[in-house]
Known about the structure:
With 124 residues, this protein is of the alpha+beta class. Helices cover 10% and strands 26% of the residues. The strands form four sheets. A three-stranded antiparallel beta sheet has the order 1-9-2, with no helix packed on it.
Amino acid sequence: MDERRCPTTEKVQEMVFPVGCVFLAVVDTDPATLLGYGTWQRVAQGRFLVGQNDTDPDFDTAEETGGAKTINLAHTHDNHTVADVRSQAGISAVIGPTTHASNLSAAQNILPPYFVVYIWIRTA
């Protein structure tokens, strides 16, 4: 049989999901069972996918990981205010430098809205 006109099942499978291809599903069944071929490994569990970007060092390499689910926003800063404040009512007060601490001592959730899927990569 001439494979140029009628490729084998294996050739078609290689064209559809070659090694290194990612498969997304909302069922946890191994793609080898669903498709009938290949070796698949679950990847990116609990992680978002982001497109590769040659000009951004955070996203320039495939399979790179990073980020955090929460961030601590606690901080302090000095408030330097005017030494003599007068209101229109004629009341005055002397205000010196103060230090302010935020009440954000607990880690803050920074997760964007999400949709969970099973992510598999074909390894063989």
